Amino acid sequence: MIIIKNQREIELMQAAGKVVGETLKLIEASIRPGISTGELDKICEEFIMKSGATPSFKNYNGFPGSICASVNEVVVHGIPSKDKILQEGDIITIDCGAYLNGYHGDAARTFRVGTVSEEADGLIRITEESFFKGLEMAKVDYRIGDISNAIQNHLESNGLSVVRDFTGHGIGKDLHEGPSIPNYGLAHRGPKLRPGMALAIEPMANLGQYHVKVLEDNWTAVTRDGSWSAQYENTVIITEEGPLVTTLV
Fold it and tell me: Among 43, 44, 90, 107, which is 20 to 30 Å from 191 by CA?
């Protein structure tokens, strides 16, 4: 079910989104060779709590971390660990959520660890660009498929594959609401966009094939071919004036 938010709810979602955006800014300054993903998780959790919010992901369906920390070939849902140490040239996706005053914010960024290869740099840059291509379609009376198609076209025209097993989603009082927002598909299809719809739009792209597999921990999803993966996500509210991104600060 797609839940339309009123003005008060939109303002509450902006506050939650601001916490997420600030958390990702903080973590970007903390990422360096030699730090563990467990340390990054602690930094994020402490900041979210200090901001008066709670981590959306902690204990969500049993997930043990406050963030998802997905390194290199990990597509999504990497579990933070004191034993996973970042190395020069790695890339890491931090997916972060905050729950504040009854509403969630959700966003993700893929960061460079030190100096990365030209290929990895392009993967991150093009994935981020694809979000903004999709955002151009996040307008009243457009359709979900218009967002999906714009993301797919940008990724595939730049030689990347589009992850199909995971999608964006609606968001609000619940972390995951309707509708599903694939990062591929046909334009002019799917639910029509209405003012007050809140969407977590999150392109995920691989350097190799799009196929993924979930490891034995039942969380960590990796590329089947070992190629590297990137993600870029923001929480977006549809308004008459255009898309409002709550998680960019």
Answer: 107
